[in-house]
Amino acid sequence: MSLKKTKLVAAIAGAALLVGGLAACSSTKTATPAATGSAASAGGLIGIAMPTKSLQRWNNDGAHLDELLKAAGYTTSLQYADNKVDQQITQLQNMINQNPKVLIIASIDGTALGPVLATAKAKNIKVIAYDRLINGTKDVDYYATFDNYKVGQLQGQYIVDTLGLAAGKGPFNLEPFAGSPDDNNAKFFFAGAWDVLKPYVDSGKLVVPSGKVPASDAEWTKVGIQGWATATAQSEMDNRLNSFYTGGKKVDVVLSPNDSLALGIEQSLDSHGYKVGSDWPLVTGQDADQANVKNMLAGMQAMTVWKDTRTLGDQVAKMVDQIVKGQTVTVNDTKTYNNGKIVVPSFLLPPQVVTKADVKTALVDSGFYTASDLGL
Ligand code: BGC
Predict the structure, then answer these.
(1) Is the CB of 147 under 6 A from ligand 1?
(2) Is 148-307 CATH 3.40.50.1370?
(3) Rounded to two decimals, what is the model's pTM?
(4) Residue 149: phi, psi to the nearest 5?
(5) Mind listing the pLDDT tens digit for each residue in 219-266?
(6) Residue 206 pairs with which residues in a beta bridge?
(7) Which of 52, 58, 230, 287 to probe ligand 1 with, by most ligand atoms within 8 A of CB?
(8) CB of 131 sitting under 6 A from ligand 1
(9) Domain 2-140+308-349, what fold?
């Protein structure tokens, strides 16, 4: 166990001793507390609702949170909802029935949880929106995420720098994509990227042959891919290549907001005969998913924006601890995330660009992957 983690566990175990009371549940996954004795398990139940197992990052996020909280003596209920909104609501209702101290929720549709969270509020259960903001309700207490706007900015700036747009190079053929229209993050990712790229679209240095170009940030859902689905991104890219890239026209750059879309786009490019080392375009991504990091090493993806989800889990575990202890919860942004009812106090972590050149130093040396995970 790392020093950081040891300290955290000690802090949380200390909190558990202070809080007292019975572990609240009979639930699903019962932890074996790291410390022995009844006091160590007095932290109570923490509900963790994740959107889907189909994307690697959510498996990592859920497992890390579960491990941290269990090691600190909490009982956890970790649930995945197969990207189905109704299933997530049912899971939350079941958790609420078991009187957790805190709910940690990575929502599927950030606008759909108001009614179920009203029942949590009535029981004084605190709610942390995890990674994705929960909208349209007062009954969310905190938000912890990476700086979503910055993620998009990093993708846009990478494109500008790599293509030499600021030095006047171009024109280049661009195909822009955005994330799922029901995910609040997706609009921040797109806005961050588009604010950097739009001036070059306006000046003609970036051309969008498909015409799938939002007139403004606000029109981002026009290029959104529902459910962040790889297969949908692939067929959308197939359609664009089949319809608009005839007669030898080539795509030079694809703005993909994350790795699950990038994977589908890369499959499409491959099946349309693009070759690494000759005409393979610049493709962006986010998450440093294993398959995409392998594609980066193979030259099929230029970059990914890495969000070290371990640091997000560490931060959220600290927030849980502060809530349970009745302490002031640490936040670093009280302006940006207005959910339509309130501005949710947030903790934003910094995302970081990773390319083929720094896969080893960023992802392997930090222990996020082993060299053999990546075939190195
Ligand atoms: C997350 C991304 C992820 C996407 C698809 C977003 O809300 O912030 O990291 O790639 O959902 O799951």
Answers:
(1) no
(2) no
(3) 0.87
(4) -60, -40
(5) 999 999 999 999 999 999 999 999 999 999 999 999 999 999 999 999
(6) 172
(7) 287
(8) yes
(9) Rossmann fold (3.40.50)
